[in-house]
Specification:
With about 230 residues, this protein is an alpha+beta fold. It has helices at about 5-20, 30-35, 45-55, 60-65, 65-70, 80-95, 110-120, 155-165, 185-200, 220-225, and strands at about 125-130, 140-145, 170-175, 205-210, 215-220. It contains ten helices and five strands; from the N terminus they run H-H-H-H-H-H-H-E-E-H-E-H-E-E-H. A hairpin with a 4-residue loop joins strand 4 (about 205-210) and strand 5 (about 215-220). It starts with 5 loop residues before the first helix and ends with a helix. Helix 2 packs across helix 3 and helix 8 (about 155-165) crosses helix 9 (about 185-200).
């Protein structure tokens, strides 16, 4: 009779705990182990799970890491990277489904949660626009630009042009600060006012501009900028 590897029993115990107690029954490294089972069915995944957490910090940070960063970890090949990024994409799509074609005002916290999930851990700045119809329902979510670790070029004319193409009547701008500090810069404030003024001339309202980071978010409307 073929002897099963020592980690086979451990895997089954993890599966049982997960199925019986749910995800809260497992700490981050064991939840990550469980995920890695799919990519490495014949290996002990505990060492890799712990190494990933040591490098990136948390389960959320691991699945949000760039493929190039993940590939630097010994044992994290294409199968592992695919498994991790599939979970991230699934989580983002679920969060996006919760807000699409729904009024943003009554779903504001879910909207902010989605923005932080999709952008808050990015290592470079990116700028996206949430386009709304006359009922303030989210009709499109598009990344417009991405730049460096501390700058993203934004062109008010292109922002307004896209809103007109989508027949949007309002917008929410969102960008991230990889530094972790969601406070706006003078350039952020100046750009926001330029977009607001350009949009108003064509009957398009800029509801808010939100900066997100891993640690939190800042609303320009709450600051009185808009």
């Amino acid at each position: 009779m073929t002897k099963l590897p020592d980690h086979a029993g451990h895997r089954q115990r993890l599966r049982n705990r997960f199925l019986q107690g749910g995800p809260d029954a497992l700490p981050d490294y064991e939840l990550l182990e469980l995920l890695l089972f799919q990519a490495q069915p014949r290996r002990d995944t505990k060492p890799l799970a712990k190494e990933l957490l040591k490098r990136f910090g948390s389960f959320a940070d691991v699945i949000s890491a760039a493929p190039a960063e993940l590939s630097e970890i010994s044992g994290a090949g294409d199968g592992v990277i695919t498994a991790l990024k599939t979970v991230q994409v699934a989580a983002l799509r679920m969060a996006r489904d919760e807000i699409m074609n729904k009024p943003v005002i009554s779903n504001w916290q879910r909207l902010m949660d989605y923005c932080r999930m999709s952008m808050g851990r990015n290592k470079v700045e990116s700028f996206r626009i949430l386009f709304l119809n006359h009922r303030n329902e989210l009709i499109a979510d598009e990344e417009q630009q991405h730049g460096t670790v501390d700058h993203t070029p934004v062109y008010p004319r292109e922002v307004v042009k896209r809103a007109l193409e989508l027949h949007a009547t309002a917008m929410i701008m969102v960008h991230n600060h990889p530094s972790g500090d969601p406070s706006p810069s003078k350039a952020d404030i100046a750009m926001t006012k330029e977009v607001r003024d350009a949009a108003e001339k064509l009957g398009i309202e800029l509801h808010d501009h939100v900066i997100v980071s891993k640690s939190g978010s800042t609303s320009f409307k709450d600051l009185g900028v808009i």
